[in-house]
Specification:
The chain is mainly α and 193 residues long. The protein is built from four helices and no strands. InterPro entries: BAP29/BAP31, BAP29/BAP31_N, Bap31/Bap29_C.
């Protein structure tokens, strides 16, 4: 499903501006967070010096503002990381499917060539040890080289498929860890509220 979403042409047009929007919002959230830290420090210093009753409610509001801006900043970074991981996972799944198709095609081609070699060897053995023994040896040598090339190609594509499987598994594991961390943070956030 995510693969289909990331392949929508509108997404590729928005993705160009996504980094700029992300940086703009992150800078804005950092400024808000730093301002909240400054206000909390200011009112905590006033609270220690004056111990006024009306300062407590104002300080409490600024502390809540600090928590809100901090969690917003953190959740924005988590959202960015989640989208990045989903995008990587979609790309890896696409390349994984393409590699599987390539391996299947190479295997089928190798089977066809092996069947063709066996048929030609049977036909040659039926003819017997005739006059063209030298040409059959040359043909056999040529066919052996083709088989070796096909085996090397199959090995290469199977290695690529194995690597893609490992990468997909790593991305899935990383996204599961991120999900667990996000759930834990949401529980902590609910407890703080």
């Amino acid at each position: 499903r995510w693969q289909k979403i990331f392949m929508i042409p509108l997404w590729s047009k928005v993705a160009v501006f996504w980094n700029k929007m992300f940086l703009t919002i992150i800078v804005l959230l950092i400024i808000l967070f730093l301002d909240a830290v400054r206000e909390v420090r200011k009112y905590s210093a006033v609270h220690v010096n004056e111990k006024a009753a009306n300062v407590n409610s104002s300080a409490f509001d600024h502390i809540q503002n600090l928590y809100l801006s901090g969690f917003s900043l953190f959740l924005w970074l988590v959202l960015r990381r989640t989208i990045t991981l989903l995008n990587q996972l979609a790309k890896e799944m696409t390349s994984h499917a393409a590699l599987e198709m390539q391996v299947n095609d190479a295997t089928e081609a190798a089977k066809k060539y092996l069947a063709k070699i066996e048929r030609s060897q049977e036909a040659l053995s039926e003819k017997g040890n005739g006059v063209k023994k030298e040409s059959t040896e040359a043909t056999n040598e040529k066919l052996r080289k083709e088989v070796e090339l096909l085996k090397a190609e199959i090995q290469k594509t199977s290695n690529a498929l194995r690597k893609a499987n490992n990468e997909v598994a790593a991305v899935k594991k990383q996204s599961e860890g991120l999900k667990r961390e996000y759930d834990n943070l949401m529980k902590e956030y609910e407890q703080l509220q």
